[in-house]
Structures are given as structure tokens and as C-alpha cells.
Amino acid sequence: PDVPSHRTVLGVDFFGLSPFELHADFFWTGERPRASGDPRPPLGDTLLTDLSISSGRLFQHAELRATVRNLFDTGYHDPSPSALLVDGDYPGKARSFSLEFNYRF
Question: Whole-model pTM above 0.85?
Fold first, then answer.
């Protein structure tokens, strides 16, 4: 129960945008059935998309990367224990942004 029978991750790199690098990740999770006796319907499937762009090399040893997780702000839930213990499911993470600066010595 609460475990999908199918899960797929696909990562795609887009080249030719020099000096930038673009990377997309697609995460598909299939329907998750409930435990026997749990009256709630199964959780439906979910498709999430993450996108990042990096500068490659800004200068000699530095790199800048911007990332958007859950690009389309897809609403989803993660399964919680039986409805008798917890009311509802756990909400998934909303869209988030991050900016990284890496310097190698």
C-alpha cells in the first residue's frame, strides 16, 4: 500500500546554448493504492518537472546555477498512514527556486 507500481525519471540535457547549460528532469509517479480497509481512494499519478540552467564557467573556477523545482507548481500529495490515524494526506512541495554559486579552489 501507498507505494506506486510504476515510477519513471527522465533527465534531458540541452546543448548548443553556449555558454549556458540547460537541464530538465521529469518525475512520473504512478497511482498509489491504499491499504486494505482504508476507505480513501488511491492517490492518482503525478508528473513533476525540474529545470536548471548553469553558466558553465563564469571565470576560471566559478559556476552559477539557477534551479526551479516543480516548475508548473503541480499540486500533489504523499500518502499518510491510515485515515484512522491521520486526516488527509501530506501535501507535496510547491514550486521552489534556488540559486547556487560554486567556486573550486
Answer: no
Q: Which pLDDT tens digit goes with each residue over 66-81?
A: 999 999 999 999 988 8
Which residues have a Cβ under 8 Å from the Cβ of 16 and sit 6 or more positions away? Answer: none
d(CA 75, CA 25): 17
What's the burial of 79, exposed, middle or buried (CB within 10 Å: 0-12/13-18/19+)? buried
Residue 90 near residue 43 (C-beta atoms within 8 A) = no
Helix (H, G, I), strand (E, B) or coil at 83: coil
| pLDDT greater than 80 at residue 85 | no
- Cβ atoms of 44 and 22 closer than 8 Å: no
Which of helix, strand or coil describes residue 85?
coil
